[in-house]
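Hey Z.,

So I finally got round to the arginine thing we talked about over coffee. Here's the setup:
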Amino acid sequence: MEKILERIEGELKKAFLACGYEERFAKAVLSNRPDLCEYQCNGAMAAAKAYRKKPMEIAAQVVENLGEGEVFSLCQAVMPGFINLKLDEGFMADYLNRMAVDGRLGLERQKEPKTIVVDYGGPNVAKPLHVGHLRSAVIGESIKRMGLALGHRMVGDIHLGDWGLQMGLIIEELRDRKPDLPYFDEGFEGNYPEESPFTISELEEIYPTASLKAKFKAEDARKAGMAEEEVAKREAESAAFAERAHLATRKLQEGYKPFMAIWQHIMRVSRADLEKNYRNLNVFFELWKGESDAQKYIPGLIEDLKAKGLAYESQGALVVDIGQPGDSKELPPCIVQKSDGAALYATSDLGTILEREKELHPDAYIYIADKRQELHFTQVFRVAKKAGFVAPDKPMSFLGFGTMNGKDGKPFKTRDGGVMRLEHLMDDINQAGYQRIMENRTATEEEARNTAKIVGLAALKYGDLSNQAAKDYIFDIDRFVSFEGNTGPYILYTIVRIKSILNKDKEQGKDAGKGLILPAASDGEKELMLEIARYNDVMESAFEEKAPHKLCQYIYDLSNDFNRFYHDTKILSEEDLGKRKSYIRLITLAKDVLCACIQVLGFEAPERM
Ligand code: ARG
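And the result:
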């Protein structure tokens, strides 16, 4: 459906043209004086400069031409040249009635749907998922769902970190623990076992142990009073272990069969666990590709970069300059190969781009990662375009997010100062949600537990998404699970409240035959209608700007408008059946819009809470 704002601007354009002014001045915005009007046009001010007239004169002319036809109930020129607008109640009711039967709640279907790759999640295999990966998953999923809601083909790719040094560390730690495994027997000629040599909980313990082992901190040990002789011994052991891990990584990357077999096990065991964790977060990926999939493109791309004269040697490494005219500061070149011939993070990303171009032919790319990776992505995008891997005008964007901090303003940690595991964080928030529900209601234990999961997820995701992604935010569990204020549970509470009214209406058996939404009879009702009608506009701009927080702000406003309306209006005790049906239809639409938005944000509402 045509957006309300487009319709308003359509009317304004006609009027500007009729008065002999260019239509580019016919821009409308939401009013910043809601006490005076609903929308406003400030174009007379700009036009005044272009036509050397008084703004007020232009505004008055335009207003005269606008008339009060079908769309507006008020058009007014006010000093120094604003055009204040209110929408006609009948027009609004008609718009909402069309939304109610539209099936897409007024969202326009894409005339040319785009294929858009969303690279998000990005966990590192065999390292436990921690809160740092939470933001990427939560934000990425919502951006993907916005695109889907608008009718694009969205391809979410988890882009696993599955090819790094962590693999070598695990392999060598496994060797130390279980030296008799066939993978470590060079003479072994049979088939490697189907069954994994470790469970997920062992694997999760193997990696951190190995990682510590490889970086023995002599200084710390000395401080803790370790004898110098022991320090020297441990240091040498640690260095030897690290060396082995590097070698194992190299061998794996060269395709050494026994290590490939271990790698397969690591991948299978981790993937099952990751899938479970992401499912609990209501996050799903279309593709489970990883850095390992990019490797086969790397030799070719290095050759290509050399052949095109882009890659050159610098201090033994192979680098590509990425500076462009207009850069405000000098950007370091992108290193594509280390002096020992190893590929790097950037090289993997370039290989991945080649694969995506070949297999998916995307129209655009969106990457979601910690904002500290901004330079990395600038380098990758520029090399990809310079080398012609990606067409120069194809949008490649990076959405960098800030840090999730604790109440002390420092990166979020567990009580004992460790890195918080995502599962534990979810347990904590579910528990807080559970307590909140038990305070309020007499639900059965089982119902309360189930509801707590739904509410907890909403609290967590809304707590994150309602902030502008690039900003750091404070993870405040008590605030997030509160049923009041700008929180996920408040939105759910509003939806549940509407559902309960609708159920009662059904029980009273008065819903026979659907009514129509009637023109608003009060200011509160009108405000609710105006807000509902903005849905298509908000969804489009939130997606364009990759700004889930705008969608959150919208549902918060909409919830407030509903609750005010509910407070001031007798719905179920309304005796005029036509009015009552109109109310029911209106709040059903409010609920449908709220539910569509939370679906896009990646959470859902319970039946009761
Ligand atoms: N695995 C990376 C990390 O944990 C994030 C991956 C982001 N995506 C990408 N295509 N580089 O930092």
